[in-house]
Amino acid sequence: MRQSGSYTSRRRPLIAGNWKMHGMLDEAQQFVADLGNIASPDQVEVALMPPYTLLHPLSELLRQKGIQLGAQNVYYEPKGAFTGSISPLMLRDAGCRYVILAHSERRDIMGEANELIGKKLAAAWSAGLEPILCIGEHLEERQDGETNAVLRRQLAVLEDAPEGAALTVAYEPVWAIGTGLTASPEQVTETHAFIHEELTRLGHDCRVLYGGSVKPENAAELMACPGVEGALVGGASLQADSFMKIVQAAADVAAGE
Ligand code: PEP
Known about the structure:
single chain; alpha/beta; TIM Barrel; eight-stranded parallel barrel
């Protein structure tokens, strides 16, 4: 059991790598080769979210290393005339356990809003996928004291969620994604406490990851914050070496070292 401050978690933390729109087949094969004989430690669950084109080729290779597979997005219809879209069952067919939903890049660049996100959540659950629901505020919202109100609005998509639905939430302050800026341990602790409170109010008791410029150098400090049960890692997940250092830091924290 991991005990951090007033928050106690019996769940295994998850370290998930979001490759975004990066990765050719040869690079993915090199990544797996670079993992060598490193097995994922028992204390943490490890997952990788490569682009769609790499799901099938990586599925078996990652399974052999005890690493879970996930996708970065999904459409909500099961099949049909939706050119360019991928369905939840296709992700299952490719070996996915997880799907990232509502990443800030999809909210901000593709204009995804709660109505669409709610449909995708429902579709993911009915196909047996575990969504990793991303939430997070922009810098101006934090500066205006709006952080909790923004997060509450984003979490409202869970109001109609089926009881006990498999779920992970990722708190990713938008100003910390890909910028090299990380939230301070105080900001992370305070915000994760609010998210857990809000999730309890909505009837969910699930892991809450932190995401935003997590690197080998700051992973231990961030993973030790109360209420943090893993990380969603972008840039630092592209190299096996830095990704596995983050995994090891999380394992050490979980083991109480
Ligand atoms: C992300 O893509 O979810 C992310 C947190 O990216 P980075 O680690 O590069 O900030």
